């Protein structure tokens, strides 16, 4: 219990530190905001001109589909890539050895950087994406919060996929302890996961794999998030115990696949830490 | 746990072997059958040439690396089975620890205190003592390498460990600050076992009362306390000879004098076992041209350090290397010293 509390204190301290540091690099922050705006403008325009081939999957304007997707993906996944790059920086800085000799896992870096980036992304997206959605939808999107259920579903659609991305990031932390540089792979996976989760088009539109892809926690979360933004209710997500406990439902995938991935990723990291401490390569970068 | 932490031996290493994974996956042995003991409260200098495994030894003691073979106990705790407890009691000050440049000293210390679960006041006391207390609000990017070394030490002290592992703690420090750091460590850090790797013999001499002598290949040649080392040291006198530049007194001519020596700039340092040899050397030198002045003094730990450092460089690692006991005997034989005819 004490070590759990201490881990939380360290995560909070590291998150605060990254937030402070990030805010000191104002140029980068501005570039990130501009990138987000560019994405919104380009995807918004794309949405106006591209007609969805699967109209039954997207029953609302395609540009809203894209804009809500960018909003969601920025918040849920940006922390993944930034945590991978930060881990490498910290390895170069010699922080890994310091953390280990003080009984703190390298996962703290990944987790705290993900928290920080998510907070930043949430701030930027709220300031930029919500007005963009309001303007492009003529004021109808995002739909106003309707109930406590709306809030619960919003939280579930963001937090559980975020935890799934954390599991992927922790697995990459393990990979990075062995292979040292995994930025390219992480970038590629980030792109693939975005497409597979339905950032650009509904995953069900993908031949053969469509059904399987639509069960990814990020795909389930994104679908629910879009519905909440566009319709004010998540028709595809039913957060009842019976749905969550029924295997192969969207809700089951959202909760149990995330939990399983998270547990597996921490076990993998623990094993890799042990092996690389024996190899004497844990600190190398 | 307190009973364990109060173990008589702060460090006990038996048959430690550590191999590192090389570029192509091959195993490179960096610590080979290391045996050493350090009693609680001892201040141990770990002496040896660069690359002999001193830092790796510290990394094993601080649980960053896991040993491949052997038993390693810190304050009575096994570094493999009880790594979590060991980590609470050990502080490793590594020169490779870097800081975020965009953080102030104050922010940096507060962050590290959170990671360690320690009190930053300890670090502030140290920094005040070495006259860096006024830099709290300054960004790390404005710090010199010496100042960063002092911050690393502050972080290490802040943990208030039972075992303090200092890897080159005074590297890059200016003379005045180095003096303050040594004074602080010798006076204000009490009840702590210290192991130090430092290439400045004056620092080691003032801080340590024990020595662990390592040689290339990751072997411990000798462990002993300074007093017994001084007693068993085969030389009693140091003879510093200053020669003028352009002197015809070549290295070859000096070696023909028949006494072990080291050349340090324009000073040639001889180590001599008795007054007879001293007299003999003076007479021989009187016949030569080149000497400007000379100074004779009793052996100090600084001389021992130089001598030992020199000896471990002489013993190159090879398949035909003698066992540790033999190597230790070689290290104390004046006839195989640098420059002396065998």
Number of β-strand runs of chain B: 14
For CATH, the homologous superfamily of the largest domain in chain B is named as: P-loop containing nucleotide triphosphate hydrolases
Quickly give the structural class of chain A. mainly alpha
The strand count of chain A comes to 0
Helices of chain A, by number, come to 11
Contiguous runs where pLDDT drops below 50 for at least 5 residues of chain B: 1-6, 314-342
Helical content band of chain B: 25-40%
Question: In a nutshell, what does this entry contain?
Answer:
The complex is a heterodimer of chains A (285) and B (342). Helix content of chain A is 76%, strand content 0%.
Describe this structure in words.
- The complex is a heterodimer of chains A (285) and B (342).
- With 285 residues, chain A is an all-alpha fold.
- Chain A has one domain (9-279).
- Chain A has helices at 2-24, 26-49, 62-92, 95-101, 107-137, 148-179, 183-197, 210-213, 217-230, 241-245, 250-279.
- A six-stranded mixed β-sheet of chain B has the order 6-7-8-3-9-10, with helices on both faces. In chain B, strands 2-1-4-5 form a four-stranded antiparallel β-sheet, with helices on one face. A four-stranded antiparallel β-sheet of chain B has the order 12-13-11-14.
- In chain B, helix 4 packs parallel to helix 6, helix 5 crosses helix 6 and helix 8 crosses helix 12.
- Residues 1-6 and 314-342 of chain B have low confidence and may be disordered.
- Chain B is 36% helix and 27% strand.
């Amino acid at each position: 219990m004490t070590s759990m509390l201490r881990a939380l204190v360290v995560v909070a301290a590291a998150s605060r530190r990254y937030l402070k540091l990030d805010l000191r690099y104002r140029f980068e922050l501005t570039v990130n905001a501009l990138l987000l705006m560019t994405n919104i403008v380009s995807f918004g325009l794309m949405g106006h001109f591209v007609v969805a081939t699967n109209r039954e999957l997207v029953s609302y304007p395609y540009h809203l589909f894209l804009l809500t997707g960018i909003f969601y993906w920025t918040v849920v996944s940006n922390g993944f890539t930034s945590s991978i790059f930060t881990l490498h920086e910290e390895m170069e800085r010699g922080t890994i050895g310091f953390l280990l000799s003080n009984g703190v896992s390298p996962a703290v870096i990944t987790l705290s950087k993900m928290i920080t980036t998510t907070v930043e992304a949430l701030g930027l997206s709220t300031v930029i994406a919500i007005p963009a959605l309001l303007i492009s939808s003529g004021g109808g999107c995002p739909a106003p919060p309707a109930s406590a259920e709306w809030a619960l579903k919003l939280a579930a659609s963001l937090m559980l996929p975020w935890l799934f991305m954390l599991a992927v990031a922790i697995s990459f932390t393990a990979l990075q302890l062995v292979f040292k540089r995994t930025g390219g792979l992480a970038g590629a996976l980030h792109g693939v996961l975005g497409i597979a989760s339905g950032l650009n088009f509904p995953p069900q539109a993908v031949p053969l794999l469509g059904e399987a892809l639509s069960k990814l926690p990020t795909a389930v979360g994104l679908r629910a998030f879009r519905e909440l933004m566009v319709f004010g209710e998540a028709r595809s997500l039913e957060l009842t115990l019976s749905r969550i406990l029924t295997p192969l439902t969207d809700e089951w995938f959202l909760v149990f696949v995330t939990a399983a991935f998270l547990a597996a990723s921490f076990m993998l990291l623990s094993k890799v830490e042990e092996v690389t401490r024996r190899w004497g390569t844990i600190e190398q970068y | 746990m307190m009973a364990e932490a109060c173990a008589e031996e702060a460090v006990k290493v038996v048959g430690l072997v550590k191999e590192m994974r090389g570029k192509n996956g091959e195993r490179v042995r960096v610590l080979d059958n290391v045996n050493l003991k350090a009693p609680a409260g001892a201040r141990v200098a770990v002496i040896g040439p660069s690359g002999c495994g001193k830092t790796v030894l510290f990394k094993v003691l601080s649980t960053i690396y896991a040993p491949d073979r052997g038993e390693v106990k810190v304050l009575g705790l096994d570094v493999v089975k009880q790594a979590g407890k060991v980590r609470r009691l050990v502080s490793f000050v590594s020169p490779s620890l870097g800081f975020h440049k965009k953080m102030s000293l104050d922010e940096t210390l507060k962050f590290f205190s959170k990671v360690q679960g320690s009190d930053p006041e300890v670090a502030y006391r140290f920094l005040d003592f070495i006259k860096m207390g006024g830099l709290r609000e300054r960004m790390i990017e404005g710090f010199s390498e010496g100042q960063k070394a002092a911050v690393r030490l502050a972080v290490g002290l802040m943990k208030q460990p039972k075992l303090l592992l200092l890897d080159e703690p005074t590297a890059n420090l200016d003379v005045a600050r180095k003096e303050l750091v040594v004074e602080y460590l010798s006076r204000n850090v009490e009840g702590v076992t210290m192991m130090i790797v430092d290439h400045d013999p004056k620092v080691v001499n003032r801080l340590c009362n024990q020595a662990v002598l390592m040689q290339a290949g990751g072997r411990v040649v000798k462990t002993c306390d300074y007093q017994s080392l001084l007693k068993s040291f085969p030389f009693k006198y140091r003879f510093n000879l200053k020669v003028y530049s352009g002197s015809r007194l070549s290295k070859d001519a000096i070696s023909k004098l028949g006494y072990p020596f080291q050349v340090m700039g324009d000073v040639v340092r001889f180590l001599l076992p008795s007054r007879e040899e001293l007299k003999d050397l003076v007479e021989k030198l009187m016949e030569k041209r080149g000497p400007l002045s000379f100074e004779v003094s009793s052996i100090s730990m600084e001389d021992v350090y130089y001598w030992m450092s020199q000896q471990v460089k002489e013993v190159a690692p090879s398949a035909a290397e003698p066992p540790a006991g033999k190597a230790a005997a070689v290290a104390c034989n004046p006839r195989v010293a640098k420059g002396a005819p065998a």
